[in-house]
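[audit] Reproducing an earlier prediction to check determinism. Same input, same settings, fresh worker. If the C-alpha cells differ from the archived copy the diff job will pick it up downstream; this log only records the rerun itself.
[audit] input (116 residues):
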Amino acid sequence: QVQLVESGGGLVQPGGSLRLSCAASGFTFSGYWMYWVRQAPGKGLEWVSAIGRGASSTYYTDSVKGRFTISRDNAKNTLYLQMNSLKPEDTAVYFCNVYVGRRHYWGQGTQVTVSS
C-alpha cells in the first residue's frame, strides 16, 4: 500500500523559508516521478513542482520558479520542497503525490501559512 506523509509546514513571515518533507513507502520510490501540489484556502488543487526518478529533471509552476527547489533522497525514500522567499499567496496545504499503477496517490498534506 502506497503511503505518503508530509511534514515541515508551519507559520512563517513573508520572505521566510520552510523545507517540506514527504516520507514515502509502499512502492519503489526511486522508480517514480514525484510531485508537489497545493491547495490555497477556497481554491482548487494547483500543481507546484515535479522531479524525475533520478532527480536530474525538475519542473516548477511559474509562480514559484526561482524560489522553490524540489529534491529527493532515494536512499531515504523522501521527497523535499525547499521554499524560500515565501509570499502570502504561498499559503496553502501542500501535498506530495505519485502515480503508481495508473492511480494517483497523495498524502494528508501539511499546512504552510505565510503571514506577518
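[audit] rerun output stored. Observation attached for the diff report: The chain has a mean pLDDT of 97.
[audit] end
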